[in-house]
Design a protein that fits this description.
single chain, 127 residues, mainly beta, Metal Binding Protein, Guanine Nucleotide Exchange Factor, Chain A, seven-stranded mixed sheet, three-stranded antiparallel sheet, 8% helix
Length: 127
């Protein structure tokens, strides 16, 4: 395991996440992920730590309201959120991780446009 650091574009939001150095990220084609180019690294909440900027976050919810989409109120970047698929976890945007601790990235497509039919294809949260 490695401790990866990351955040938003302006630097007001900073976090750490424990995950392997070789990452497998889900690339979802649902309406919001496709528009913003989000690449999912879903981890248990215990593997995610806010370092700074919690007071700078704004939340967006839609559809069922289960997902909590967090954006920096200054630069607008969504560097992490609580996903509908894993409400007990955090999805970190792999594009928002700092360089230096990620050895490799493998992208795994996920058909989120048809989420209801495909949600069983999502891996459960690691322990």
């Amino acid at each position: 395991m490695a401790t990866h650091k990351g955040g938003c574009h302006c630097g007001r939001i900073r976090f750490e996440v424990d995950a392997p150095p070789d990452l497998v990220l889900s690339e979802c084609n649902c309406s919001i992920c496709n528009m913003i180019g989000y690449q999912h690294l879903i981890v248990p909440r215990s593997a995610f730590r806010m370092i700074q900027g919690e007071d700078q976050l704004i939340t967006y919810e839609f559809n069922t309201g289960t997902a909590q989409h967090y954006f920096c109120s200054h630069c607008g970047v969504k560097s992490f959120y609580v996903p509908r698929s894993h409400p007990a976890g955090i999805s970190v945007n792999g594009r928002c991780l700092d360089p230096g601790t990620v050895s490799s990235v493998t992208l795994k497509p996920f058909d989120g446009r048809h989420w209801e039919q495909n949600r069983d294809q999502l891996a459960p949260l690691p322990d």
